[in-house]
What does this fold into?
Amino acid sequence: MTTYTADLVFPADQAPIPNGYVTFDDSGKVSDVGSVLPKGVKAQAYKGALVAGFVNTHCHLELSHMIGRVDTGTGLLPFLKGVVSLRQVDPADIAKAIEDADKYMWEAGIQAVGDISNTADTAKVKTSSKITYFTFVEAFDFLQGGAMAKEVFAKAEATYKAQPEPKRYVPHAPYTVSPALYAMINDANPSGGTVSIHNQETPAENEFFESKSGGFIDFYRDFGFNIEHVSASAKTSLATTLPHLNPANRVLFVHNTLTTKEDMQLAQSWSDKVYWATCPNANLYIENRLPRYADFMEQGARMTIGTDSLTSNWQLCVLEEMKTIQRMQRYVDTPTLIQWATLNGAEALGLADELGSLTVGKRPGLVLLEDFDEAGRFTPSTKAKRLV
Ligand SMILES: [Zn+2]
It folds into this structure.
């Protein structure tokens, strides 16, 4: 049994507690949390804030060997071309990078990860990791359907079998998945659970669906894919995509840089299980722009935080994502960001029974955040230290 106190305890399922305490039993389960330390209880006292372990809702652990290999600031389409044109990597280097990234995330206070997998490369590390992984087995057929949809789905099936639970099949993005492939994904998934999809990351994506014009036309031509059968919908990418998703599942929309209030309203009236993942450092890396968080907050959107992969980020660290959001849009206060980074993420991945808040009976991990400014904001030197 160990009790911890700090200037502020953020349970996430109740208001922050000034000078609060939290007690963990020896198995890592929360046994008590409150504002007045019970008589006779000795506590480890810290300066700073105590929070549950973070939930990183969007990562591609299998791409960890790609750090620094693709240029920043080019926009999504050149970025994707850059990724595709990279040469084969030694499997031993891939395995080592995955192991290192898993360890790094644990030490950075990350308790659970929603991880996109196109291969089985990460399965071994996930099975023995202290981090809880929810695997999103991703498929894309570049809108081709037919034989190509069958072929890519067969590959996804092999990946799915090799990855540990919990897991679901997911579509990559509106601009890479045909109606036939969406149907295969929906049919194969058990009911319930969470699916994710990359969403509205670049202006070209809306342009493509609204008017079948813009950068994606050249992108498909350069790769030799035929998109003659695709027609303009006169709707945004999100509006075009919703009918292909199953509203009975939790759906996590990822990036949402160009998502408007109308898009949010449409999605949230389509299903009451919609979540949004923001990956600000990856957005800055690739497109050098961010979502407008005020719109999401105004629409009551359930926000979560992802790191994306080391292809498009400098580190896999939820704290660094929170710092970036607050540095660029200062009205997003610290309690709000901690809520996004902990309980909202755990709910999005269906892991909130065990993780995401300092609640009696859960095993959420415990992270100390140190070095805030006088107003309680993150500073460049704010650090996360794992205590449990
Ligand atoms: Zn991604």
